Amino acid sequence: MDAPQTDEQKEYQAPPRTNRQHVLPLASIIRFRNAKDVVEVELIHKQKRFTENGNQKNFVAIRAWTQFAEDGMRGVEDAFQNAINEVLVSKKIDDKHQVIFKRFYALIRARSKARYTEIAGESLMTDVSPMPKMTDEELLEFERQGVFFENTPLAVSRQVKDFAIAHEVLQADKQQGKWGLITSAKREFLVSDDFFPLIFVPVNPTTYLVWEEDSQQLGDQAVQRMNAEIKASARNFVFARSLDHC
């Protein structure tokens, strides 16, 4: 008989109109899954290890931004997955890829900030008519179209974060510099839960994109140093295909 699931292992059950929102897209997390279709997670402060599939609570933000922003950035996510698939085959990053990678990093960086930043304050509008009675599904459908009926501090916070995320992605094209493809022959890479401190983009267990680094293969000691940086940048946890191989 399987052991009871811990709180960390339980599938996250979203409250009404709180869809699963990943800082790092699920398509990227899946690249790190092992043969059992899970990744290995380490809670840093508790020194605790367990497995998750990438859809559980450690990987999911509780609606830090709106569904309008979630759907609106899907093109950035899809462009990245297509571009990195090309690069993994060719081992070359061209100018088109560079632009796509800049936008993707800007997206996960902005989502990291949105997930861990609370924008406190009162509702912006005080003299408004009562909100019409709608189901959660109806409100979510309006939100997907950029129409917002709720006038609560939380709703306002999500909308402000939408603007911040969009601004960072739009500004990404102006960044001067290039991404390098960093690979490991043997050891595997960790992935942090926060993409704000380091300008790194995880690709798969043996590959990263690193800003302003030449494409190269790292030896074991260099990978260990990079993993130490990644772990130091994390807020709550790191994950990998195999923590023992990092």
Furnish the topology, listing elements before pairings.
Layout: E1 20-22, H1 26-30, E2 39-43, E3 48-52, E4 60-62, H2 67-72, H3 74-90, H4 95-116, H5 136-144, H6 153-171, E5 179-184, E6 191-192, E7 200-204, E8 207-211, E9 216-218, H7 220-233, E10 237-240
Parallel strand pairs: 5-9
Antiparallel strand pairs: 1-4, 2-3, 2-10, 5-8, 6-10, 7-8
Helix pairs in contact: 3-4, 4-6
Protein name: DUF4238 domain-containing protein
Any key phrases for this structure?
single chain; 246 residues; alpha+beta; 4-stranded antiparallel sheet; 4-stranded mixed sheet; 7 helices; 37% helix; globular; disordered N terminus
Structure description:
- With 246 residues, the chain is α+β, with helices and mostly antiparallel strands.
- It has a domain at 20-117 and 135-175 and 235-245.
- It has seven helices and ten strands.
- The strands form three sheets. Strands 3-2-10-6 form a four-stranded antiparallel β-sheet, covered by helices on one side. The chain has a four-stranded mixed β-sheet with strand order 7-8-5-9.
- The longest helix is centred in the middle third of the chain and has 22 residues, at 95-116.
- The radius of gyration is 19 Å and the shape is globular.
- The two termini are 31 Å apart.
- The relative contact order is 0.16.
Beta fraction: 15-25%
**Total beta strands:** 10
Average pLDDT:
81
- Oligomeric assembly: single chain
Q: How far apart are the termini? A: 31 Å
Number of helices: 7
Q: Which residue ranges are poorly predicted, with pLDDT under 50 across at least 5 consecutive positions?
A: 1-18, 121-129
Any idea what the radius of gyration is?
A: 19 Å
Major β-sheet strand ordering: 3-2-10-6
User: What is the chain-wise order of helices and strands?
Assistant: EHEEEHHHHHEEEEEHE
Q: Helical residue percent?
A: 25-40%
Protein name: DUF4238 domain-containing protein
Organism: Duganella sacchari
